[in-house]
From TrEMBL, chain A:
PROSITE patterns: ETF_BETA. The electron transfer flavoprotein serves as a specific electron acceptor for several dehydrogenases, including five acyl-CoA dehydrogenases, glutaryl-CoA and sarcosine dehydrogenase. It transfers the electrons to the main mitochondrial respiratory chain via ETF-ubiquinone oxidoreductase (ETF dehydrogenase). This is Electron transfer flavoprotein subunit beta. Signal peptide: none annotated.
UniProtKB/TrEMBL annotation, chain B:
Residues 116-295 form the FAD-binding PCMH-type domain. This is D-2-hydroxyglutarate dehydrogenase. Its cofactor is FAD. Signal peptide: none annotated. Its EC number is 1.1.99.39.
Length: 251, 490
């Protein structure tokens, strides 16, 4: 069985996000970019399934500009067998990404598609669900535990839902999106970084995949959250009570 | 930082003792006969191989140190605190900034390692240089001993009182005074916390030229006073290079304005250098002007393992930390490179590491793929001190040695201590700074006798320094002659 994992290149989790002055989006110039943490978890889970002997190959796919190759190299250094880079310089919304991933899945024919539950840049949380719908496969989202049966006929997935867990059993092939607590991704070790250099990354274009890009969603404006006002230190209980009464009007 | 009056007024360190400390002192300096025996052998060996003036110098001191240090007593010339003193301080500082509360004093009296403890009855929190000056002027006239204090993160007992000195804590002097976005010169008050300065500079696109594990609590004034080294020394140089100016208050209350922001200034003696690393013995640093560096966008971090060192015991004592490399090796090295082109920098680092791997210099390693991973690697390095503290008693030595000698002392000491204690060494490979740590279940005289003065003599023999970046403090004030000639000290 083959596992297809989607990995997205996003602004690093630890970087403070700056909105572009013209409010068209987030500033990504000279900003540290890394693999989306949820995608890392998805990749880690695929690798563990492969290491358990239940999958033969893990293929990482990334969609975007040429620097996505760096993200794929990270994936290969973690242990993916090969990469697919769908080259495109424009940024896409989830439906387009899902169509592209569907076409890749049609070509690769995997038994499982793993995705992060959402990307930390746009927080859409839509792609996995759309891929499943387009492929007509069952989906298990927000996975916190994934167990495959020996014959690879179905997967048992724990989902984190409000106030508890839901356990699903999905027939394969299926789409699984991963939540934070599924696993702790491994580091890229030097020997694996070395090996990754010789692993293939296949370039594909939207034409190759016959995906027509059109979007019926327009981003109107991106703005920063309102700035928090700084607090004040009051010098006495009386002053505090006074402020609560006369300024905050809460007592 | 340490007591300025101690140097100024009492050459012989005579003080009337506070109970706990005098007994501690004795423990600290007692030496078992077996050690003396060893020392003799050691000396003869040195005479055979290195019959030079240097070895004579360290020997002459080595034999006298054990007895002289026993005499640390409170200098009777210092007066004791009276209620009129407290009222005077309240008058100039205001009620709130004169601390007599026992709980707060308990914290201020105890050093970070809980190894040194004073019994001061008063902590003052001045808000500006003028107040520091008034305090010192008054203390000078009343012969009250004082100890300057910053974040109290020192490791050598320099930031806490030895006896009942008045604590002058500069924590309220925490304002950034100016920042020049063209030259990168930052002027700030001494009580600014290093991490806060770093955060402030980050928004301006600059970085502090120094960084250290205690950044969340240590003050820039304390950093300057102890000439802190830290993690970026190789890249940006020592504080003697990056500090452009200082304002300090002398013991008599006189304010020395050396707060220049010039890169070049050859008018007479450069007095600020005397204050850098003086540990408060010359005065209290109140303002600092420091040259900061433009932040480089690309930071690459590698955590690598080499054959030949000890267990990664740090990992057992820190929460939420895991070993980045699967194998357990003897040596771990953290390499951080900064530059302006990420892809190029990473390729360079990878190429270097891969070549080292091929040649067998490195046995395993990881390269941080994102900032989160990078911080988890740094967490391991910066958490070593914390982990050792949780592991039990810990004797710490901060040695500067020729790089090729840096690890031999760890091996020698392991042979010497056997299974009495766990000896580990870490530090700054690039600048020859070894943090030698001897971790045991508890502090005991026998163990200390085996360690001191052996460690100091070893260091002296190899022409190292017994304090690379922590300072002398109370711990090593009497051992200065291991690293400096008597002429220099006097």
């Amino acid at each position: 069985m083959k596992i297809l994992v989607a990995v997205k290149r996003v602004v690093d989790y630890a970087v403070k996000i700056r909105v572009k002055p013209d409010k068209t989006g987030v500033d990504t110039q000279n900003v540290k970019m890394s693999m989306n943490p949820f995608c890392e978890i998805a990749l880690e889970e695929s690798l563990r399934i492969k290491e358990a002997g239940l999958a033969k190959e893990v293929v990482a796919v990334s969609i975007g500009p040429s620097q996505c190759v760096d993200t794929l190299r990270t994936g290969l250094a973690m242990g993916a067998d090969r990469g697919i880079h769908v080259q495109s310089d424009s940024s896409f919304l989830p439906l387009t990404i899902a169509k592209i991933l569907k076409s890749v899945a049609d070509v690769e024919n995997p038994g499982l598609v793993f995705l992060g539950k959402q990307a930390i840049d746009d927080d859409c949380n839509q792609t996995g669900q759309m891929v499943a719908a387009l492929l007509g496969w069952p989906q298990a989202t927000f996975a916190s535990k994934v167990v495959l049966d020996k014959d690879k006929k179905f997967a048992t997935v724990d989902r984190e839902v409000d106030g508890g867990l839901e356990t699903l059993c999905v027939d394969l092939p299926a789409v699984i999106t991963t939540d934070l607590r599924l696993n702790q991704p491994r580091y890229a070790t030097l020997p694996n970084i070395m090996k990754a250099k010789s692993k293939p990354i296949k370039k594909m274009t939207l034409e190759d995949l016959k995906v027509e890009v059109k979007s019926d969603i327009e981003i109107v404006e991106v703005t920063e959250p309102p700035k928090r006002k700084s607090g004040v230190i009051v010098s006495s209980v009386d002053e505090l009570i006074d402020k609560l009464k006369n300024e905050a009007h809460v007592i | 930082m340490m007591m300025m009056h101690r140097w100024r007024r009492s050459g012989d360190f005579i003080r009337s003792a506070c109970k706990s400390l005098s007994s501690f002192r004795q423990k600290h300096n007692s030496m078992s006969p077996s050690v003396t025996g060893f020392m003799n052998r050691y000396e003869s060996k040195v005479n055979t191989f290195e019959p030079n003036a240097w070895s004579h110098q360290y020997r002459s001191f080595g034999s006298s140190s054990s007895s002289s240090a026993l005499k640390v007593k409170r200098n009777p010339l210092f007066s004791s605190l009276e209620s009129k003193d407290v009222s005077f301080f309240k008058e100039i500082l205001g009620e709130r900034n004169v601390v007599e509360d026992e709980e707060r004093l308990e914290i201020a009296n105890t050093d970070w390692m809980k190894k040194y403890k004073g019994c001061s009855k008063l902590m003052l929190l001045p808000k500006n240089t003028e107040e520091v000056s008034q305090i010192l002027k008054y203390c000078d006239s009343r012969s009250l001993a004082v100890v300057p204090q910053g974040g109290n993160t020192g490791l050598v007992g320099g930031s806490v009182p030895v006896f009942d000195e008045v604590i002058i804590n500069v924590g309220l002097m925490n304002k950034v005074l100016s920042f020049d976005e063209v030259s990168g010169v930052l002027v700030c008050e001494a009580g600014c916390i290093l991490e806060n300065l770093a955060t402030f500079l980050d928004t301006k696109g600059f970085v502090m030229p120094l960084d250290l594990g205690a950044k969340g609590s240590c003050h820039i004034g304390g950093n300057v006073s102890t000439n802190a080294g830290g993690l970026r020394l190789i890249r940006y140089g020592s504080l003697h290079g990056t500090v452009l100016g200082l304002e300090a208050v002398k013991a008599n209350g006189n304010v020395l304005d050396m707060l220049g922001t010039l890169r070049k200034d050859n008018t007479g003696y450069d007095l600020k250098h005397l204050f850098i690393g003086s540990e408060g013995s010359l005065g209290i640093v109140t303002k600092v002007s420091i040259l900061t560096q433009p932040k480089l966008s690309s930071v690459n971090l590698a955590f690598i393992a080499c054959k030949d060192f000890l267990s990664c015991q740090v990992l057992n004592h820190l929460d939420g930390v895991r070993n980045p490399v699967s194998s357990s090796e003897n040596f771990y090295i953290l390499i951080e490179t900064t530059g302006s082109g990420e892809t190029y920098d990473r390729e360079k680092l990878e190429a270097f590491l891969l070549k080292s791997l091929e040649q067998g210099l490195v046995s395993d390693g990881v390269i941080a793929q994102d900032i989160n991973q990078a911080s988890s690697f740094w967490r391991i390095r910066e958490g070593i001190t914390e982990a050792l503290q949780k592991a039990g008693a810990c004797y710490k030595y901060d040695l500067s040695l020729p790089v090729e000698e840096i690890y031999n002392i760890v091996n020698d000491l392991r042979g010497r201590l056997g299974n009495l204690a766990n000896v580990m060494g870490y530090g700054h490979l690039g600048d020859g700074n070894l943090h030698l740590n001897i971790s045991a279940a508890e502090y005991n005289d026998k163990l200390l006798g085996l360690i001191e003065p052996y460690v100091y003599e070893w260091t002296s023999k190899h022409r190292g320094s017994i304090s690379a970046e922590h300072g002398l403090g109370v711990m090593k004030a009497n051992e200065i002659l291991y690293s400096k000639s008597p002429e220099t000290v006097s």
